[in-house]
Each structure stands twice: as C-alpha cells, then as structure tokens.
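WARN retry 2 of 3 for item q-0093 after timeout on previous attempt; input resubmitted unchanged.
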Amino acid sequence: MSVSRREVVDLDVRVGDVTVRKAKVNLLKIPLTTPFRISLGTVYDYEGTIVELISEDHSGFGEGSTIQEITGEVPAGVFETSVQILRHLKGRRYDGIEAFLEDVYRSVYSNPTAKNAIDMALHDLVGKTYGIHVTELLGGGLTQRETSLTIGLGSVEDSLRSLRELKKMNVRIVKVKVGGNADLDVMRIKAVSEHLDGRKFYADANQGFKLRDALKVAKVLADEGALFFEQPMERHNLNEIGLLRRQSGIPIMLDESIGEPFDVIESILSESADLVNVKLTKSGGIRRAFKTLVTAQSYGIDAMVGCMVESKLAIAASLSVASSLSNVIYTDLDGFHSIASQPFDGGVEYKSGVNTPVRGVGFASSPSRKRW
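OK item q-0093 returned
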C-alpha cells in the first residue's frame, strides 16, 4: 500500500450545524490479487482518492475509485479535481447537505468520481456527528444483502476455475463478464451454466457488443435462464438496445448508460431498460445516486446498486444506499475482494454470498491499522 499524492486543504466550511475545519486528500495505490478483466480493458491496481473531512470532534471519509473508460477520469485527475473542488468550498456556509452538494456538483463539469469522494466523506462525517449510521440517515435499515461475485473475461477453463473459487465462497449469484468474442462468450456461458448447481447468474458486457453479436449472446442467456443481460451495447445506443430488448427475450439492465435521473428518463422513453444499475461513482455520490434510484422507482423500474474496484469504505456506502430504497432488488458489491491490502477496516462483512453492514456510526469504517 503506497501513497502517491497527499494534500491538506483548510476549509472552515459550515454545513448545517457541522463545521468542517480542513480536509486531507490522499491518493492510494494497492495491487490487486488478480487482474480485473472486462471488455473495456484490464485493471491491475486499485488507485483510490481518499478524502477526509475533519471537524472539531470527528473525521468523515470518502473514496473515489474508477475505471477511465467508464467515467473518463484517471486517478491523478480525481485527486487534483477533489483538491480543487475543496478549495472552491473554502469559507462557505450551507443550510444543509443538499445545498453543500449542489455547490460541489456545480463547481466543475462531470468528474463524478471526485464528487463522490467528497459526498461520501460528508455523509460519513454527518453520521458520526449525530451518532447514527448513514443507512439510517437515508431512511434505511441495517439489513443483510445478497451480492453477486464476478467471473472475468478469459477462456472457458479460466471461467470454470473462477467458478470453483466462487463456490468455495458460497456465492449465491454469479456475474459472468462477456463482451469479447461472442462465440467464445457463448461457450463460456453454457459451461458456467452447466456447473452452477442451482445458483443464479447473469452476464455483463460492459458495452462490448454490436447488435448482431448481442442478439446471439442474448438468446443463449435466455435459454440458460439468466436473470438479465447487463449493458450489452454502447451506452448511448439506446435505440438499438431497445431493439435488442424487444427481440431477445431476456431482461436488459443498463449500467454505463445510467448516471443521473435524466438518464433513467431517457431509458424509459427509448424503451431500452427493464432494470438499471446505479453506482455512486457514476452518479457523483450518495445524494445523486439516491435521486437516480428514486426516479427509476417512480417509473416502476427495479434496480441494482453496483460498484467499481473499491475498498470496504465505498462498499459500505453503496450498501447504505441499496438498503434505503425498496426498488433495489439486486446488489453487485464485491469490489473489495481483489484488493491485496484493505485500506479500511469495518464497514461491511462478507460471508456466504451476503454482505452484512457493520453496526456503528457513519459507515462504521475506519482507516486500517497500516494507516497510509
């Protein structure tokens, strides 16, 4: 575990009756135990920007970790943008969380990962200040949630080897990454499906297919009883995704296509989604992700809350959101499993295919004993 960059920012920012005196921003780099391969590329290291907001009595922590091909951000850029946003906030006064975060969102175009780190840190700090868990702050309950675990791209043999490892972890729902070679993906799906032993599964293409190959894979998924087909084609190609949805016989979940409430409305108008996957990183934090999920709920659309390659801190934050709305019927919160050394302790515990939130205040998470 190494710190690539570090910055301290004096703030004197007031949010409601919480005064944030200063912020510390760290850029961490930690190797992964196994490279994370998807159709968009391969990730070898966790590189996360950790924002610490400090009041007189407490510290709140937030995390920004992303994949460049999804949000357009690189680790050094997330760090720099986080610092610049915090400097923009210096000395300001806000009535509450909403006003503070609206200023964060307006301070710079896009850059959702940097905004997520600040948003998350504020929620953690507020929860600690008032002595409640963030899940309770959002109106939810501290309940266990099933999570899918992932089989990355590779050969048929690689996929079956990964499945055997997931079985040792008593996984209940398996996610199969696809989006490479459609014919190979079909063989992989069939092989995995034959060895699930009653477990549920779905496939995630991360935009990897054109319509012809997407239809080929979708038919096999339908035949094999998959739960749904996640982000089969390019994020903006909603019309063709809608065509696939009508012709394939498999429910379609949109992921990279969904970042904010308006994206949900577009998916409804284009008839391209049966479900949506909302991630704090894509949305720019807890507040915006919550609004995106509420928009889906208002249209009768069920959802998943997913993650990037993230530590237990960010997974705890995502679990808080997932446990606060009734239309979140799936979670894909396995991002911490491949990080070689955990930067945070607590937050969430995994056992037998289920994530359990740790009881406490904020996210009930703290920097590891090997403090970076």
